[in-house]
Fold these 2 entries.
Entry 1:
Amino acid sequence: MEVISYQLFIVVTIVATHFLKRSWVIWACALWTLETLALLAYTPLITVQLIVIWGTWFLLDKNQSQKERLNELEGYLSESPQDIKELALSVEEPKKEILQGQNHKDFLIKSIQQVEQSIVILSGWITNYVVNQYFIQELESALKRGVKIFIGYGWQNSMGKHEEFDSSIQAINQIEILVLKYPDQLFVGKFANHEKILIKDDDYVVYGSNNWLSNSKFKNSERSIVINSPELANKEYRRAVDLINSNLIVMA
């Protein structure tokens, strides 16, 4: 009984430290580990106590990571319709994963290579930093497989204008050439868009800070959350496609 009470005391001190100052938790666990190794001589008890110490740390850390991920996702969804927001937040944790930095670029290309029916890309900007010859080739390869592709862009400044540079004009020109070749499969809309979303088939939706079609060097920290949910993918697909189709680029 005394042993159990002592293990509970260890748990309580670690949990209390977590709520008082989370950055100190690892030090509390380290001190308990040193105390365990210094004062105990019975190997099974040492093992149990170390499991209690670091098991408590693991559970607290996992719970904190889930809370941070939830807060992050809520930020990405701040301007989304309420029904979509509620659905995205309700998806179980095992069906969510994090993308960081350069992984975004690889994930985008992989999505285009593996898509079977449709892919939607919302990005504030389009530039040839991403929309280069290789990207266009992968896009056309998907179009040749019969895939429907929807692209929305057009971040606007305080004057209500979407500024274009040589890098963006070149990229958009390349996409427009594909639109002429595949008018029933490739749809491009220009509107006041600040969302950064990727939707592949009925497989997943990706929300985050990364501008999918303009960011390739990742000088700033970029993070996104992949949510594997057919229901969410279907809802977001319909919403995004309506936006894009309502603002299609008029070809000369």
Note: The first helix runs from residue 2 to 20.
Entry 2:
Amino acid sequence: MLPSMIVGLTMKLFNLSILFTLIFSFYTANSFAEPANLSILKHEARHYHDSGQYEQELAAQINRAKKFLLQQVHYYKVHKNNKKLALVLDIDETCLSNYKKIAKRDFAGTPSQIHKEILEANAPAIKATLSLYKAALANNVDVFFVTGRHQSELKATEKNLTDAGYKNWSGLYFRPLNYQFKSIIPFKSSSRALIEKKGYIILETIGDQYSDIKGGHAVKGFKLPNPYYYIP
């Protein structure tokens, strides 16, 4: 009796060993760390833009932002708030489109290439954002730009914004030349804090990167689509 029990137990352990070996082999054989193919991702990014889907989703998000902005304006008007109201906007891929240059560079580019493009000061306006911008000014909401661009690009940026239809803004904040943080969040957040110290309630902060809207100092943040590059 005892020998047969030992044999049976041995067979069960043997079968379990085979089962675990098969499971381990299956998962290790299918757990590659290989990223998505870069050529396919670039093709998908181009199709996303060229199909019109990017523009549709961009406009839909900005329209949500406009609706929220007007609701907030009405709220503060009804409650007779004495503080000034503000809208904070990023610039690139939020107010101005650089897509043609990005695609021409095949979604790559050095800092010197990007700097040269900025100095050309010819990026077209994103129409939906320009409409939001004008709606803000028409409702006595002051507009501020907070950008990751550098101070050396000030004149070109002012010219480009003006030529594209963005006029009468209340402030333009550039990333400091000695900026040491890996993320842009501390700069953008502290810039909004400075605007608040001027007596403003920032109704919205809008940008194409999550780093444009994180860090507080705004009633609400709106993230616009941008699969073309990433800024932490």
Note: The longest strand covers residues 141-150.
